């Protein structure tokens, strides 16, 4: 027999329709009423080696149900804060429509989704897809206030053009740096044998990038890394899952050993949210088929849930 305080369904995470954190699905993008809107961008035609990130949004949504046991918010005893309580409205917009082989149309559809979130006053949170999906995400901010871009990644992604390709997953930070509304870039985790030649690093620095490797970031510590971002400016955060060590995130197309561990990135992000308004987020390059354990997708979902908690706690605290 059910006790008096148990009513309705238990509704465990492995039941029901799978949306991000079991949040409401809103298919009508003109009717968004939310503080944060999750958009899937399952496009991986920008990859130069292993494909598979098109299944990233679905896998991260599935993993996120682990954190959706139905109680309001998530209490963190270290911070003595309950994050993402009922006052934070999160919805899942579903996915942008991807047209196979058509990068321009697929990117345009992603941009439309991000613009819909912005027009509704919601924080856009995009789950990729390969890192090229960041290009339409940044383009969606055209005409809006400038912001700084924080990238967590193993690779610089600052290629201008290769054989006519300007919108692949090696190009997004170069495309962002060209935008008048991107005031600067902080690129963290860039390491070792990279996809970008020396001239790419020279160009990035000439266009205003601050580049830190994993080892440099570790020596500085999270507070000093975050302090390198100009004081008080709005920040857009783009996270490539290969910024993490493949020992904990093997499910990605271009793994690079020597990457971050979970708390190293989480603490940088927490410091950033305390000092800067966050205007947009994307997390990309989860390719679940390379990780039969599902750990990479769980890492991505856990990181996004905590980052959203930090963002909205900072807002409520008046940061």
Describe the structure.
- Helix 1 packs across helix 9 (295-316).
- This protein has 319 residues and is α/β, with parallel strands linked by helices.
- The protein has helices at residues 56-64, 103-119, 134-139, 172-177, 198-206, 214-220, 222-227, 262-275, 295-316; strands at 36-41, 74-76, 81-83, 90-95, 123-128, 147-152, 182-188, 209-212, 235-240, 278-284.
- An 8-stranded parallel beta sheet has the order 4-1-5-10-9-6-7-8, sandwiched between helices. A two-stranded antiparallel sheet has the order 2-3.
- The protein has a single domain (37-316), classed as Ureohydrolase domain (Arginase, Chain A), CATH 3.40.800.10.
- The model has no long low-confidence stretch (mean pLDDT 95).
The total tally of domains equals 1
Rounded average pLDDT: 95
- Tell me the β content: 15-25%
Question: So what's the overall shape?
Answer: globular
Low-confidence stretches: none
**CATH fold-level assignment:** Arginase, Chain A
**Quaternary organisation:** single chain
Q: Secondary-structure map with pairings?
A:
Blueprint: E1 36-41, H1 56-64, E2 74-76, E3 81-83, E4 90-95, H2 103-119, E5 123-128, H3 134-139, E6 147-152, H4 172-177, E7 182-188, H5 198-206, E8 209-212, H6 214-220, H7 222-227, E9 235-240, H8 262-275, E10 278-284, H9 295-316
Parallel strand pairs: 1-4, 1-5, 5-10, 6-7, 6-9, 7-8, 9-10
Antiparallel strand pairs: 2-3
Helix pairs in contact: 1-9, 8-9
